[in-house]
Write a structure and sequence with these properties.
By secondary structure, the chain is mainly α. The chain is built from 13 helices and no strands. The longest helix has 32 residues. The radius of gyration is 23 Å and the shape is globular.
Length: 248
């Protein structure tokens, strides 16, 4: 009976701290939802070192806040801890890889190479852990098309992941193929897949992708026609703004 009392007493001693931590996490989530990322960071930085319950969620939210402020070094640190704590969670590997890739965009090419290679490794891990993980497959399509062959770039591997995307969602698969064929200078097939994505998806993203393809090919009139058609159907202000941006 005495040991049971001591055990209950210890639990009760820790309860106020647990409730406080949960309250602060909820507060941080509210600030995150309203875009106040600086406040999120100030709340969660000390909290992630203290709490045990929901620690992974707190670390993930802190990493996301750092990502929104483009503090890639800090985001990488948080996602790295997250992956160490939860090596079986695909989305954590993807976020870690994504932060590494974004960091690579801010440094010179020599420093970027190991970051991109590690990002590729993390995204492969995410895709293997979750056969339905769309974002990691998209990232791999882009990484394999951006990397030179000597560093592991491969159009065939990019097509493999684009095919996997297509099996999950045809729109993403067609958009990915439009992207990779465009990068490979196969403009006929790129246009074909962008149009297929638009026919099936009909979303703002699909209209913008096809319009950007035409703009990059110096086919402004085709781009404007696509954007006007999209605005007429969706009334998306972003499409109208794009028309105004490219119209003399």
């Amino acid at each position: 009976m005495k040991f049971r009392f001591v055990y209950i007493f210890i639990i009760l001693l820790g309860l106020p701290q647990l409730l406080y931590s949960q309250s602060r996490f909820s507060e941080a989530q509210t600030y995150f939802d309203t875009g106040n990322y600086t406040k999120v960071i100030s709340i969660l930085e000390p909290l992630t070192k203290e709490i045990s319950d929901n620690r992974s969620k707190a670390i993930e939210l802190l990493g996301d806040a750092y990502s929104h402020t483009k503090d890639w070094d800090s985001a990488i640190n948080q996602y790295n801890v997250l992956v160490d704590l939860n090596p079986e969670v695909a989305n954590y590997h993807y976020k870690y890889g994504g932060a590494l890739a974004m960091k690579a965009l801010t440094v010179n090419k020599l420093m970027a190479i190991p970051l991109i290679l590690e990002a590729k490794s993390e995204c492969i891990q995410a895709s293997e852990l979750d056969p339905n993980h769309i974002e990691s497959r998209w990232a791999l399509v882009k990484i394999y098309m951006e990397l030179p062959a000597v560093l592991g770039g491969s159009t065939s591997k990019a097509i493999t992941y684009a095919n996997q995307l297509e099996s999950l969602t045809k729109v993403d698969g067609y958009l990915a193929k439009g992207y990779l064929y465009n990068k490979a200078d196969d403009f006929k097939h790129a246009e074909q897949f962008y149009k297929q994505a638009l026919d099936i998806g009909g979303s703002k993203t699909c209209y913008m992708a096809l319009a950007e393809f035409y703009l990059n090919r110096d086919q402004k009139e085709k781009a404007i026609a696509v954007l006007r058609k999209g605005y007429g159907r969706l009334e998306a202000e972003e499409l109208q703004q794009k028309i105004e941006d490219i119209t003399p």
